[in-house]
């Protein structure tokens, strides 16, 4: 019986110690290298990506429309070489060519501003390396359009779209 009493006293003596141990807060730490955290995208980066995406949309819409216009301008030029085009058709073709040239110039100016903004904004500078050259690509398309090479200008603008897409992929 003395053994039972001794065991009971020992158990009672240990209860307050066990009680303190139970109230201790337990914390777990994450093992390094296990969890991958995606880098936080800032608002400036999100807005920069939105601007790049908008230029991709604008350029692809323009290239789509340019395809039909370029085909029409080529056929008018062919008809003019064969002396089959009326002066009214030639005047309209000249106005269309001027409009296309002005549109490509406008696109180049917007892309030039985009490059400048990326280079000047600290949060976007790391993407500038991939973005650099889109304005010069548009300038090449502008020169090709000035030489009545509208199909070739459209193909050059496709290269600009590809480069912008690479920038957008880098930014996600």
Note down, in words, how this protein is organized.
The structure is a single chain. Helix content is 80%, strand content 0%. With 172 residues, it is mainly alpha-helical. The protein has one domain (43-171): Up-down Bundle (Four Helix Bundle (Hemerythrin (Met), subunit A)). Helix 2 runs antiparallel to helix 6, helix 4 (125-131) runs antiparallel to helix 6 (150-171) and helix 5 packs antiparallel against helix 6. The longest helix is centred in the middle third of the chain and has 39 residues, at 43-81.
Biggest sheet character: none
Q: Radius of gyration, Cα only, in angstroms?
A: 34 Å
Please name the CATH architecture.
Up-down Bundle
- Assess the beta-strand content as a share of residues: under 5%
Mean pLDDT: 84
In CATH's first tier, which class applies?
A: Mainly Alpha
How many helix segments? Answer: 6
> What kind of assembly state do the chains in view correspond to?
single chain
Q: What is the number of domains?
A: 1
Shape: elongated
CATH third-level topology: Four Helix Bundle (Hemerythrin (Met), subunit A)
Helix content: over 70%
What's the order of the H and E elements? HHHHHH
Q: Structural class of the helices, strands and pairings?
A: mainly alpha
End-to-end Cα distance, whole Å, is 75 Å
């Amino acid at each position: 019986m003395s053994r039972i009493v001794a065991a009971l006293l020992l158990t009672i003596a240990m209860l307050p110690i066990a009680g303190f141990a139970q109230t201790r807060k337990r914390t777990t730490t994450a093992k390094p290298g296990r969890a991958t955290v995606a880098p936080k995208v800032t608002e400036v980066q999100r807005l920069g990506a939105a601007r790049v995406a908008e230029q991709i949309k604008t350029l692809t819409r323009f290239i789509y429309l340019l395809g039909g216009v370029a085909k029409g301008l080529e056929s008018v030029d062919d008809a003019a070489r064969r002396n089959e085009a009326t002066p009214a058709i030639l005047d309209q073709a000249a106005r269309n060519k001027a409009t296309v040239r002005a549109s490509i110039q406008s696109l180049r100016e917007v892309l030039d501003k985009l490059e400048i903004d990326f280079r000047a904004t600290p949060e976007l500078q790391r993407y500038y390396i991939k973005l650099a050259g889109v304005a010069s690509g548009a300038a090449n398309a502008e020169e090709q359009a000035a030489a009545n090479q509208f199909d070739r200008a459209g193909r050059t603008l496709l290269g600009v779209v590809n480069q912008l897409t690479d920038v957008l992929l880098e930014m996600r």
